[in-house]
Amino acid sequence: MKISKTSILIKFLKFRFYRKFKSNSISLIKKRKWKKTVLSSPYYKNIILKNKEFPIMNKALFMENFNLINTVQIKKSEALKLAFKSEKSRDFTPSINGISIGLSSGTSGSRGIFLTNKKEKEIWVAAILDRVIGFSLKKRKVAFFLRANNNLYEAVKSKLLSFTFFDIKTPVEQHIITLIELNPTILIAQPSMLMKIAQNYIYLKIQPTIQKIISVAEVLEDDQKEYLTSVFNRPIDQVYQCTEGFLAYTCKKGKLHLNEDWLEIEKRYLDEKQDRFHPIITDYLRESQPIVRYELNDILHEGFSCSCGSKSTVISKIEGRSDDVFRFYENETVVDIYPDFIRRVIITASEKVKNYTVVLIEARKINVYLEVADKNKLENIFKTVKKELNTLFLSFGIEDINIVSVDLNHDQTNKFRRIKNEYKKSF
Ligand SMILES: [Zn+2]
Question: How far is the CA of 129 from the centre of ligand 1 (A)?
């Protein structure tokens, strides 16, 4: 089913209008309308009719109740079959009765299926136009680095706006000349890809003139932000989205705001100090597969209010995902070490570390990959990192951790995460 340029434009104008003239809160009318849609989900119908509180949803529960949650009578087995088939053939246009089927990234055992109808796709494109690309009467070229070639944006291309897609499965070196020749106005890619692009610009001694850089899909870390800002000579914007929703985006003042225009976001605090929380989202625009009180396992830090005028919550940091917290068992107590602690150790151990990964692979074994400019110094830097990591673990009462130096093991088509827990026995 082809999406329509006119309906995208109407949705785009609506977004603009509501932002300018209405308050941030979601209106009761919108909530009532949404409830009607949700009534066609057998799972939620029961809850609404019995006047019960919506339960907190997570990926496992969501997938378990897939057939009852969706409002378009699609069975999990047929959706999964189709999604895997299209993943293999890299033809990303599978659909059943006009409903597109998508797989969310994640380890193979925990992949989710996401359904979208035509209207939801149009909303998505309108939101990207409104929040990410912005409006301008000048001619602009957008370079998009994506996991899958996406024809969604074909509908909105015009004389003023063109899109070029770069498949992230292809090594970046093969894209770089095309990218330089294209000389895009806007570049959208995940931070690990932006880093490679920036390094290539430096290597080829080309002065980038890209006007807007948008980081998507992965956590943009402070050192990456700093490096990219210096290479591209402008601020780096962020869009924090996932298959479950359009969660946050950078405002004019450079702060990351939660998208509370059509998402209701509850917070589940993870620590006593209430620094960290998981967002629990309800998306008032989703129809084919209601997202109701869906708890994401991203760890967010709340920031202070912003001077841009938006009242929506400011996020000071996306720390990572809860299933990447390092969990140890010591004398029958559980010890959780958050990704930020590990990050700080590496950054402060040596300023020569350009990139790294720290992966918990067994109950007491950690693999560390360090990228340093001068390879002769690697051994010494690793020794320092190892010592500092052991000091950190000791401060939590954890001893005897086997820390091993390894090479980078990352498939470009997967999300790059520096701190990873692959020993997920405890989660
Ligand atoms: Zn702001």
Answer: 18
